Amino acid sequence: MKPQYVLAAAIAATSVMALAAAPEPLPAQWGITGKNPEKFIAGIDQSDGFRGAKFLRNKTDDAKAWAALYQQISAQDYLGQRIRFRARVRTADIGNWAGLWMRVDGATRGSLAFYNSHDKPIKGTTDWQERSVVLDVPTDAASIIFGVIGDGTGSVWIDQLSFEKVGQDVPVDSLGPRRPLPSAPTL
Fold first, then answer.
1. N or C: which terminus of the chain has fewer CB atoms within 10 Å of its end residue's CB?
2. Environment class of 60 (CB within 10 Å of its CB; exposed 0-12, middle 13-18, buried 19+)
3. What pTM did the predictor assign?
C-alpha cells in the first residue's frame, strides 16, 4: 500500500475516534466563573474512563489562570439546614491546585458561608477520589453555589455528584482562622 494512503487512513481513523470522544456541552444549569473563565473549557467527557464526568480544563499555558465550574440553586429548601456537596474528583497535570467549593449567599448581605478546599488541595495527576464540602445554610440565605475549581494548567473531572442535607454531627468545613485585623491603619 502506498504511504500516502496509509497516512490518509490513519488521519481519518484518528478523526473518527476524536469525534466519537468529543465532549458534550454542559447542562444549562452549569457554567464557568472565576478570574479567567475564557481560558478554560468545560463539558461532559465521553472518552473511556470518564464517560459522563463533568470536566474543567485550562486550554492555555497560563499557570496563573483559574476558573470554577459551578451550579447555583435556590436555598429555599435548605434554610436552617446543614448541607453536603460530594463528588468523586480526578485530575491530570493540575499546575497549582483543584478542589470542590461551595458558597451560601444572602439576598442582601453577600456571602454567608464559604469553603473552597484551598487547605486540602488536589495537585498534579490523581486517580478518582471522593471529596466533599459541608456548610450551614442560614435562615436568611437566598442561593447556594457549588462546583469544582481548577487553578493553573491541567484538567479536573467530577463525577457521581450528590447534594444532601446532613445532621449536626457532620462537621462544617472551614478555611481556618484568619489573621486578626489590626486595630489601627498603617499609613
1. C
2. exposed
3. 0.81
